[in-house]
């Protein structure tokens, strides 16, 4: 298989080239630059019976999987609200008085390489993917505002989401949030409790059952469920981003082996081409809403 970690505008042509030659693909997000391109890659992978993974890294953390498992088990009851954010400050210098770009990361900030979106495509897609992964909720529509501060692409976005079951969520993503390094935080509230995960403290999960004391659950502990089987090293020895990425690649490789040996690749979990397509639809809907005075936009 091939791993694509180049700039955004190259993903589609590279992925298409390998798929057409019968080679499985692992691709960085965003999967490509348009819904049409994403749909073509999905169709091609399906037609060729090839596996396609998109590296939404944070779903590879063990405690992310524990969160999903607990929600599926009804530990917080019926979901009533979702609050998620991804805050960074690495582009704070872009707010220079003359609004002149000062950060050299043109892969993210220059439309030639990044496409139509910076902040939402780069980190907002992680928020949307993580919430769907953890809760199973599917977006019906959204409304959004984006802030460009005189630059070509957005540096900040606020998004209100309505899911198919009528529940609503609030997302915020920013690259100019002073004091935040890589703050992906997801809070899921149910009628029987809540769960909260913080990427900067990935070894723990905050569980607040209704009417009881808040519990801090730790990776590797014996009281966790099947998801704990994804742990690589003993409890108390912190796993990090590289392990989360490795979990995605490990599952992808196991799926490849299963496919080769006539087994069921669906047994092995990783973000798929469909997740990549959903991410592109999310980005396009955010930009469309912001352009149209923050009106509601339906997600097909």
Number of domains: 2
CATH-defined architecture of the largest domain: 2-Layer Sandwich
Helical residues, percent: 25-40%
The largest pleated sheet is described as: 9 strands, mixed
What is the chain-wise order of helices and strands? EHEHEHEHHHEEEEEEEHHE
**Which residues sit in consecutive blocks of at least 5 with pLDDT less than 50?**
none
CATH C-level category of the largest domain: Alpha Beta
Structural class: alpha+beta
**Rg from alpha-carbon coordinates:** 19 Å
**What does the overall shape look like?**
globular
Strand content: 15-25%
Number of DSSP-assigned strands: 12
Determine the CATH topology of the largest domain: Dihydrodipicolinate Reductase, domain 2
Mean pLDDT: 94
Q: Count up the helices.
A: 8
Organism: Candidatus Pullichristensenella excrementigallinarum
Domain GFO/IDH/MocA-like oxidoreductase: 67-196
GO molecular function: hydroxymethylglutaryl-CoA reductase (NADPH) activity; nucleotide binding
Protein name: Gfo/Idh/MocA family oxidoreductase
């Amino acid at each position: 298989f091939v791993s694509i970690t180049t700039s955004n505008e190259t993903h589609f042509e590279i992925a298409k080239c390998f798929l057409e030659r019968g080679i499985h693909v692992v691709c960085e997000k965003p999967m490509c630059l348009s819904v049409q391109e994403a749909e073509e890659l999905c169709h091609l992978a399906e037609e060729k019976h090839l596996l396609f993974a998109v590296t939404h890294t944070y779903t590879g953390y063990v405690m992310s999987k524990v969160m999903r498992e607990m929600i599926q088990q009804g530990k917080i009851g019926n979901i009533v609200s979702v609050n998620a954010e991804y805050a960074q400050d690495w582009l704070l210098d872009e707010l220079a008085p003359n609004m002149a770009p000062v950060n050299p990361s043109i892969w993210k900030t220059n439309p030639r390489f990044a496409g139509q979106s910076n902040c939402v495509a780069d980190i907002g897609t992680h928020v949307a993917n993580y919430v769907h992964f953890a809760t199973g909720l599917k977006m019906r529509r959204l409304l959004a505002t984006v802030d460009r501060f005189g630059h070509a692409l957005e540096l900040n976005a606020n998004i209100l989401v309505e899911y198919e079951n009528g529940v609503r969520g609030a997302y915020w993503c920013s690259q100019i949030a002073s004091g935040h390094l890589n703050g992906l935080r997801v809070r899921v509230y149910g009628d029987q409790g809540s769960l909260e995960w913080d990427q900067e403290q990935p070894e723990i999960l905050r569980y607040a059952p209704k009417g009881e004391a808040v519990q801090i659950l730790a990776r590797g502990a014996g009281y966790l469920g099947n998801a704990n089987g994804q742990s690589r090293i003993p409890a108390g020895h912190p796993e990090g981003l590289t392990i989360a990425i490795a979990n995605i690649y490990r599952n992808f490789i196991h799926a490849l082996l299963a496919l080769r040996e006539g087994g069921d690749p669906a047994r092995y979990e990783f973000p798929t081409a469909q997740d990549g397509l959903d991410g592109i639809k999310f980005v396009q809907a955010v930009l469309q809403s912001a352009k149209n005075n923050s009106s509601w936009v339906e997600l097909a």
